[in-house]
Amino acid sequence: MKSHSKWITYTIPTEWNNHSVTDVLKGPLLLSNRMINRLTHMKGLRLNGKKTWLNKKLKEGDRLQVAVRPHETTELVGEPVPFTTVWEDPDLLIVDKPAGIQVHPVKKGETGTLAHGITQRWQEEGLEAKVRPVHRLDRHTSGLLLVAKSAYAHQLMDRELREKRIKRHYLAILSERFDKEVGEKGTIQAPIDREGNHPLRRCVKDSGERAVTHYQIIAHAADATLVHAELETGRTHQIRVHFAHLGHPLYGDTLYYGSKNYIRRQALHACQLSFTHPLTHEDIAVSTPLPKDLSQLANTLGLQIPTEFLDKANKAHP
């Protein structure tokens, strides 16, 4: 069983010398007034190992401890759901999600989601926390998902996501041969909105929200193209909608009229994830290879998968 510490420690740098505890909590630690009030009520602030108060002046080198990792109860009942842990620290978790599994319940009483599986594993380790995904993956999209272990970590990573400092990369297998050379790069800038009254489908529409996808052609075959795509924005179904709009829906993506040959889910895999950790300031970069069903599809279609998308499998650095 892993030990759990509710405290993080911030060492006061030169530029925050002679500032108050409140200044530092709101400044570099980015805590809201609500969270600060909760910390004072729960005695969740320490300075150099001793109790402190909000207007206390700080000195360079002081160690301010903040209890931003509290134990939390969850309504989810843990259950065995398959996933692979790729990287983890006391605040964040990156998992490799299999296709066909919902990230979290979307209706009351739903079971068998990734959140249920993570909850069970955390409970086995003695960690009482709620599963807070930082971004989304569709049920039938496989690959890397970033999860926060506390409300504070989620707040920090949500800020990183909104300010486009989390880089998310995907591999997609498109129908037909793309009319560009292997290695050629491009950008799709096309706003996305709901398609009429359809409950799920999105489409490119002038009234929609800004959506930008950067891509590079990785391999060609007679009836398919392998692309590496990076999201600049994160609209629902963005990659699927953008390539369908260009006339190249993803294999298996029946919602957007993709071919049903050879595969029963959209051929989309979240292969790379990178960001700078907001608490440790480490550069984190993680990758995972195409899963078996997409590798088999690529082989069937005659697509060659470059080793750069295989050799870095499930590696994280630093």
From TrEMBL:
Residues 91-245 form the Pseudouridine synthase RsuA/RluA-like domain. Keywords: Isomerase. The active site is at D138. Its EC number is 5.4.99.-. CDD domains: PseudoU_synth_RluA_like. One of its GO terms (molecular function) is pseudouridine synthase activity. This is Pseudouridine synthase. It comes from Marininema mesophilum.
